[in-house]
Amino acid sequence: MAAAGARELHDREVVAARDDSEEAGPHPPAIVWKVRSDVVYDIELNSAAHYPVAGIVELSPLIEQAGFGAFWKGESNSTDPLVLISGIAARTRTLKVGTAIYHIYGRSAVTLGIQSATLQDLSNGRLLLGLGVANKTIAAWHGGTFDRPLRRAKEYIEIVRKTAAGERVEYQGEMYSTGQRFQLSWKPSHPTFPIYLAGLGPQMTRLVGQISDGVFINMATPATIREIADRVRAGAVEAGRDPSKIDILAKVRVSLHPDRAMARSRIRQVLTFYNIADHYKDMLRASGFEEEVNAVQQAFKEGGFKAASTKITDAYMDKLPVIPATSIQEIKERLQPFLEAGVTRMIVPYVPVTEPVIDDARRFVEAWGNS
Questions:
Q1: What DSSP letter does each residue of 327-353 carry, written as one string?
Q2: Integer CA distances (angstroms), 164 to 120, 191, 210, in order
Q3: Is 325 helix (H, G, I), strand (E, B) or coil?
Q4: Using CA atoms, how far apart are residues 308 and 271, in angstroms rounded to an integer?
Q5: Do 209 and 324 form a contact (C-beta atoms < 8 A)?
Q6: Which of 209, 207, 196, 208 is nearest to 161 (CA)?
Q7: Distance of alpha carbon 271 from alpha carbon 232, whole angstroms
Q8: Are residues 129 and 153 in contact, defined by beta-carbon separation less than 8 angstroms?
């Protein structure tokens, strides 16, 4: 199986070119970003189905052998990301392991710092930590209040970094206070690691460029990815950071089956959820799909989830960042517009079509490795 599928980043260049022509008129000169990158393909097994934890851990050596650069796991009401990726780290040697994403309300920043340092030691420095500010619903699950997300994200990341690095933490912020005299009882072997932040809106995405190592983008078209990447890099420049050091990570869900109608079936469920979910429904509207989103919303109000799913037509699906495919070659070809939009780590959440789902995922991983 080809390990070349996940190539390490190299020869990436971000060039800022200002338009100083007379045609620019009285407006400030625009910055045009030209990005060249060698993409890393990653995998996530978390969409539209419950994957047995033991089955994923057993599958992880094959995922590594197939050439994926990292395995990612998200958090909501499904299995816990850090527990799962710890098991994967113990079964693999080079596969990076990441959270995509962990919500800041689920645990204190000090706790996550301890967990991160521990996993760094266990994995020999393979952690990729993705964080997000969640929403009112998820904050309430954990007894939190969803407020001042920008400030919360900034302070939370600062505490996590200090804690995981083994520094003394006596943080007094506007949102978080850690008290006095906390410090890890051991010297961590790998005290630094990338911290990525999920972002959609203008303010959050600029903050990403100012304080984190990259942006997580979910359910976005290539045009939207390009807009977000521009804002992130502009935020980096404002903070005096090198924009070429900021990663652009995007998720594009895929399914694989010889019968395309079957490949579409589970993805239709995923898209129904995103068309009724907070934040994402607004982003989809802003991406030019207001009529389609409104139709899904109306059907949901009148007849629930099943009725709403009937409004995810094939024509609408084909415009969204999902790929119901009949071959791995088709998947890779249809990912190209996202890479051209500036993605540097392409996360491919696999949506299973048949049962048992872990066997379906295994067939996908094997096909990817043989492509």
A1: SHHHHHHHHHHHHHTT-SEEEEEB---
A2: 9, 6, 20
A3: strand
A4: 10
A5: no
A6: 196
A7: 26
A8: no
pTM for the model: 0.90
In whole angstroms, what is the distance from residue 203 CA to residue 270 CA? 27
Write down the mean pLDDT value for the chain.
91
Domains with residue ranges and CATH for the chain: 38-369 (3.20.20.30)
pLDDT category of residue 111 using cuts at 50, 70 and 90 = very high
What is the pLDDT at residue 39? Answer: 85
Write out the two tokens for 181. 């005299």
Q: How far apart are CA 323 and CA 305, in angstroms?
A: 22
133 neighbors 104 (Cβ within 8 angstroms) = yes
Say which DSSP state 311 is in. Answer: T
Give the position of tokens 């620019």.
Answer: 24
Give residue-wise pLDDT tens across range 199-256: 988 999 999 999 999 999 999 999 999 999 999 999 999 999 999 999 999 999 999 9
Q: Are 52 and 71 in contact (CB under 8 A)?
A: no
pLDDT digit string (tens) for 280-336?
Answer: 999 999 999 999 999 999 999 999 999 999 999 999 999 999 999 999 999 999 999
Q: Which residues pair with 296 in a beta bridge?
A: none
Which residue in 47, 43, 100 sits closest to 67, CA to CA?
43
The neighbour count for residue 254, using CB atoms within 10 Å, is: 25
